[in-house]
Amino acid sequence: MNPVKPGETRRTPWIVGVSGASGTPYAASVLRALLAAGESVDLVVSRASRLTLLDETGISFRDAHWREDLREWLGRGADGKPAFDVDTEAVRYWPAGDLAAGPSSGSYPSKGMLIVPASTACVAGVALGLSKDLLQRAASVTLKERRPLVVAVRETPLNGQTLRHLVALDDAGASVVPASPGFYAGATHIQDLVDFVAGRVLDAAGVGHGLYRRWQGELGGGAPGQ
Fold this sequence. Notes:
The protein is of the alpha/beta class. It has a single domain, classed as 3-Layer(aba) Sandwich (Rossmann fold), CATH 3.40.50.1950. It is 36% helix and 13% strand. It has helices spanning 24-36, 47-57, 66-75, 120-127, 134-144, 160-171, 190-205; strands at residues 14-18, 41-45, 91-95, 112-118, 149-153, 175-176. The protein has a 6-stranded parallel sheet with strand order 3-2-1-4-5-6, with helices on both faces. It starts with 13 loop residues before the first strand and ends in a 21-residue tail after the last helix. The mean pLDDT is 94.
């Protein structure tokens, strides 16, 4: 155990789970924004998401070199080109197969959890309480401890079974945020659309950011459905 010493501040991170759905740029944008906001992050990358990350970015995410790989991932924009300089010192990484990791216990302090992107398999596992890996276990812990859980589902179309799982998550207190970019915020590049979704995920978690232009209303016009 590592008790907090007198004068020290307890580290209370946001847990970010990355599942195997397409949409790793969404996760990168969320992670960059959390770090820019001064938040600590505990990162869990599922086995399936490593394959997606490799396919979408060409990056092999390795347990033994995770910080190096994370810096390369977060440094790229949605177009795959270097675009950001990110300090990852506030990130702690937990392998998805480590069911003895900190986030597997309710006594481990966290502010909540963001699953971005969330595959339908991940949604089902969390809704059914399967806890087959650390990502699902951490989400179950987040729900039982009544901490914020945001699930950014990235799939279309959705069948009835997945819709029922999403309703079950909503009933359990989670916020379901479909990865549906809005176009009213003046998007001119793919990164703008990615940042819009990431911003809505952070909005649901109550984390401040400047990722997109907010709707302020206009005379004679109706507000968009956001």
